[in-house]
Design a protein that fits this description.
The complex is a heterodimer of chains A (about 260) and B (about 425).
Chain A lengths: L4 H5 L9 E7 L4 H13 L2 E7 L17 E5 H9 L24 H11 L3 H6 L1 E8 L1 H6 L4 H18 L3 E7 L7 H13 L2 E6 L11 E7 L9 E9 L4 E4 L9
Chain B lengths: L38 E3 L6 E3 L4 H6 L4 E2 L3 E5 L6 H15 L3 E6 L4 H6 L2 E3 L10 H11 L33 E6 L2 H5 L3 E5 L16 H16 L15 E5 L22 H14 L3 E7 L7 H10 L2 E7 L16 E7 L16 E5 L4 E5 L12 H16 L14
Parallel strand pairs in B: 4-10, 4-11, 5-8, 5-9, 9-10
Antiparallel strand pairs in B: 1-2, 2-3, 6-7, 11-12, 12-13, 13-14
Protein name (chain A): Elongator complex protein 6
Family (chain A): Belongs to the ELP6 family.
Pfam families (chain A): ELP6
Chain lengths: ~260, ~425
């Protein structure tokens, strides 16, 4: 019987004020983003989603209630910054202002996140804890942001979302190990230290395979270091309507 | 399968589902099909696809190139075959009467236009009915031309397509030895961008991205907005696709220095440009093919970031000039094709090919991409030493492709 990913991740008591890291290498881990998005929306949480790499229609959601999902479409907003219409700076600070003025940090982006997730009184009664979802953090590094600025941004978000409001944060980082991208390695290592749940998605070491799309490693870190971390390793195959997980070597193509 | 069409950012597919128990699939029955000549919907995720001009490349990337996405071709060393692919892409645009934009810093776009291959005008490609044709010719020579005994299904097909109307067929064949006649592309909507000829910008831009890329991005944005590809004013024109072909992006001719330095000054220019381009593509009815001389880029991390920002990435490695040229095993082929990335659009899965060991050969009328099949070594000099040498050389040649095994162990468990 194939173990279910949900069993290890989805107990809502455990996901409370946690920082989750998704790291993908040599494969595509977007099925995890889809999973967490629909999971948190179903759990009636208010979600702020920074979708920096895909357009909104890519993430088909189950959100039907107004105001539950705040989606920031990075691609659309970037053009105003890359190709400004006039020389004058805008009156209102833009979230992606670092594209236009490279020396600034990600302060405006953080302000956007903070304002969308700070809950008013009637918000508190409607939604459960807030959630910040980021897809994908390594794009910020590709756009020339300093890795220190990225780590500062994550730190501020963590304080605002996880500590103050007991919400959760899920971040996706894409890193190819053998390319020597030092900035990305730095960010990934720092986040690995800070996160309590780490899901690493890897392409198979032996190359590409049609039946086994990759390997996923789940790591639950114990906050107080009382016992050892729980680690689980599965291989997976992505289907039309879901993902199936199985112990390494037990793919249906092999058995 | 009904194809729902709402926005141009992508065809939202209600089939996506992560929970394993229930499905949120809703078949949308009363929806309008986007019918633009030269496109067809994907069977897998409902995206609108266009042909890249090379039918075997279409097959390798999952049926075709989705509208709104970016295809990156990593050039081969002499830029011979990647240039060919770009020309096929543009020629396909002319044949399907799409609008197209050529951007180049080295060769003038008009010269590229003159050098496009001529389409093969027969309605049915010769490969498919080769034998039937021969039999048909033998029979028909005595009888009248009107009745066909064996290939009777083809009776009503026109023998030769004389008028090149907007072809509704998906994917065509091109004759590499003939050039496209001037009257074929006279009526095409064509937007050239030649970097050395561009005027200065009106105001300065301080976003630390190279000026050549800014000009190109602004030009593309202008064309998309002016000609209505972004659906800003829906009543203006009938819908059409804009094909954008950019030659040798990132090379020194564009002013970028990622191809000459390990620690370039403009390290993020190309990635910022690609991000802006991706934004433009996602919000308009356009499709883009870019060739990049990746073998010249010193810093591998930059190429990794570039790959991450493109939707589909194909690497071409030709055997020209390498010592493998003389190798008997590869004599049938002109080079290797490596599929580095295929997009996941509006769906959890993507169309994955059976294998990633592909090789190509360029014949006069066809650019074929086939599974790399090495025949058994039956020569007289076969020996263990020989085999090891071949294995090493094949591994080295594929090293650049990156899909090969990276780990030392040969088992995953």
């Amino acid at each position: 019987r194939s173990p279910e990913l949900l069993f290890y991740v989805d107990t809502t008591e455990q996901l409370f004020g946690q920082c989750v890291l998704l790291s993908e290498s040599k494969t595509d881990g977007s099925f995890l983003i889809h999973h967490f998005l629909s999971f948190f929306l179903k759990a009636q949480c208010k979600v702020c989603f920074l979708g920096l790499v895909q357009s909104f229609s890519h993430y088909s959601t189950v959100a039907r209630e107004k105001g539950q999902l705040v989606f920031f479409e990075g691609l659309r907003n970037s053009l105003d910054m890359l190709l400004p219409e006039s020389d004058a700076s805008d009156a209102e600070p833009q979230p992606l202002s670092f594209l236009r003025w490279p020396s600034t940090d990600l302060r405006n982006l953080f302000d956007f996140v903070n304002s969308s997730l700070s809950q008013s009184e009637n918000d508190m009664s409607r939604w459960a804890s807030p959630v910040l979802l980021i897809d994908d953090l390594s794009v910020l590094l590709s756009l020339g942001v300093n890795p220190t600025a990225v780590l500062d941004f994550i730190h501020y978000c963590r304080m605002a979302v996880c500590s103050k409001q007991q919400g959760n944060m899920v971040t996706l980082v894409h890193n190819e190990d053998d390319l020597g991208d030092e900035d990305c390695d730095l960010v990934l290592h720092a986040l690995t230290h800070q996160s309590s749940l780490i899901l690493q998605v890897h392409g198979l070491n032996t190359g590409y395979c049609r039946d086994v799309h990759g390997q996923i490693q789940l790591r639950w870190k114990d906050k107080f270091q009382l016992k050892r971390d729980h680690t689980h390793v599965f291989q997976y195959k992505v289907h039309d309507k879901g993902v199936s997980f199985f112990a390494p070597g037990t793919s249906s193509a092999v058995l | 399968m009904a194809i729902p069409v709402q926005s141009m950012t992508g065809i939202s597919n209600a089939r996506l589902n992560v929970e394993m128990n229930t499905t949120s699939f809703q078949k949308k029955s009363r929806s309008k099909l986007l019918s633009i000549p030269g496109t067809r919907p994907s069977f897998q995720n409902g995206q609108l696809l266009v042909s890249t001009g090379t039918t075997s490349l279409d097959y390798v990337i999952g049926g075709g190139l989705a509208v709104g996405t970016l295809l990156l071709i990593e050039e081969d060393v002499f830029d011979s075959y990647s240039h060919m692919l770009l020309k096929y892409f543009l020629a396909e645009g002319i044949v399907c009467s799409h609008s197209f934009l050529i951007a180049s810093a080295g060769e003038h776009p008009d010269d590229i236009l003159q050098g496009l291959p001529a389409p093969v005008l027969d309605d049915v490609p010769k490969d498919e009915i080769g034998k039937i044709n021969q039999r048909r010719e033998n029979d028909v020579s005595e009888e009248s031309q009107d009745s066909m005994k064996i290939a009777w299904r083809y009776q009503n097909q026109p023998k030769v397509q004389t008028v090149l109307a907007a072809s509704s067929r998906f994917g065509h064949y091109y004759d590499a030895s003939k050039q496209m006649s001037a009257e074929t592309f006279e009526s095409a909507e064509y937007y050239p961008f030649y970097l050395p000829a561009e005027v200065h910008l009106k105001y300065s831009v301080s976003s630390n991205i190279h000026i050549g890329y800014i000009k190109l991005l602004r030009f593309i944005q202008g064309v998309i907005h002016k000609e209505g590809f972004d659906r800003a004013c829906p009543q203006s024109k009938t819908r059409n696709i804009l094909r954008i072909g950019i030659h040798s992006l990132g090379s020194v001719l564009w002013g970028d220095d990622i191809c000459c330095k390990d620690d370039p000054l403009y390290a993020y220019s190309l990635t910022k440009f690609l991000y802006g381009l991706r934004g433009l593509l996602r919000t308009s009815l356009s499709v883009c093919m870019v060739t990049v001389p990746s073998h010249l880029i010193q810093n591998k991390a930059i190429m990794g970031r570039v790959t991450n920002l493109c939707d589909t990435v194909i690497g071409i490695k030709s055997f020209n000039g390498s010592e493998k040229d003389a190798n008997d095993l590869y004599k049938d082929y002109h080079g290797l094709v490596c599929v580095k990335k295929i997009p996941y659009l509006n769906s959890l899965i993507c169309e994955l090919p059976d294998t990633r060991d592909l090789a190509f050969k360029l014949k006069r009328k066809q650019f074929t991409i086939e599974r790399l099949h090495l025949p058994p070594d039956l020569s007289d000099t076969v020996s263990r030493l020989n085999k090891q040498d071949l294995a090493e050389s094949s591994k080295l040649l594929r090293m650049g492709c990156g899909a090969a095994a990276t780990g030392k162990k040969h088992l995953d468990f």
